[in-house]
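Quick board copy: two proteins, each given as sequence then tokens.
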Amino acid sequence: MVSVRSAPPDIQATPRRVKLLKTDVSRRTAWILRAASILVPLAGWWALSVSGLVEDTFLPSPPDVWAAGLTMVESGDLPADLLASLGRIGAGFGLAVLISVPLGFAMGTLGWAQPLLEPVIGILRYLPASAFIPLLIIWLGIGETSKIALLVLGVVFFNTLMTADVVRQVPARLLEVSAILGAGRARVAARVVFPYALPGILDAMRVNAAAAWNFVVVAELIAATSGLGYRITRAQRFLQTDRIFAILIVIGLIGLTIDITLRLVRARVGRWAQ
């Protein structure tokens, strides 16, 4: 008698919860986490400054920093220096964007532009912009021109390559469909490639805006008679660490404002990319 093995009954697998790498949180939780990211370090700073473990000269308390900031505002020094630094940022970063975006767009769309420009830009981006300060002073003097040139050198090469990478990510199907419909190269570049790449271009600008702030402060530390970097140097000479902390906080807040502004612009012009 031959035994016949019966087939195992169908087992319906129950779906298991998969832990995703990226999970969403509620809006309330997000705001709580944002507040904690600021309040927890602030509380730690406050506790350390009042504990007596560190002298006030090296780590002033938050109230002392606030008072120093108000003193500089009332004297007019902080607003004047802030406007000077913002003017240099606007000129240097704006000029770097005007140069880098067209170059990056060309590298991403024109077959001959990438092999022509990428090697030299790839080399130049590894040269520290601050190393050019002595040359810029020799060539352009210690006026505004050398400071703006330092900002351009610090931003333009990175922003060019990042823009080119974004432009190259435009799907080939979009280009093929546009060509089938009879659109010329200039029309495809203006009506298809640029709108698709614009959110990524704005993201690149957000990243490099932080670098621009770093370089403007470096430039003002070397040779300047105004600006936030200059004010930091003045405070360092007299061990006014409370003023240094106040200026650093202002720099951080202005940088955050620029970042949020560019995020809002990106969200508005690139809603489809959300």
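And the next:
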Amino acid sequence: MNELISCQKNRVLTLTLNRPEARNALNNALLEQLAQALEQAQNDDSIGAVVVTGNSRFFAAGADLKEMASRDMPATLNDPRPQLWARIERFPKPLLAAVNGYALGAGCELAMLCDIVLAGDNASFGLPEITLGIMPGAGGTQRLIRSVGKALAYRMVLTGETINAGQAQQAGLVAEVCPAALTLEYTQKLAARIAQHAPLALQAAKTALRQAHEVSLTQGLQQERQLFTLLAATEDRQEGIAAFLEKRPAAFKGR
């Protein structure tokens, strides 16, 4: 069985996690497939945005505990997972998550790594690692506190409690809550709207937004202005302005 299903429509690639017997647990093999699919999409000019999703009950219920249990400390030190997560994070195009059901542990970390998260009204998010005698290890503590703030992040991580879709939206983790049956459709429509814009501008904007989490305001403003200036040399910038002035749709070419 293919553990990652790919489907492209127009300029949107949808990647569906497909390990239903394991509640879409993210083992190394599935993370490798996801990293490879994103690297191929990065170099495919026909793809403007990517949506990652699961099934109606589970986005992903965490890491694969059977795989994790077989690793002692030396094996954990040599685990390829950090490199796999880094490859996924390097994807430069817009990356959206369509979340139904449980997004727990590594599943929650994958959702937080995405640029925009839409959740079904049946979704729940959590980092329950503490209940297993471990802690989040794929960005959970760092991304959660940047998304939802100190109070809720500490509570979720130290208790292992989950939050529902409405709470996640209120906290800033989720951009929109949808009827569960329509989550993927809504996310694909949003991705299609994003993908119609100039590819170089999208990548530059994503870079600037991510920098905002990692550098000072002064450095972020400098980076933003540098990227803005570089876009002035692109054909798409000229086309975008001309199309606006001529009151016609822009025809962006990624140049």
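Board note added afterward: The radius of gyration is 19 Å.
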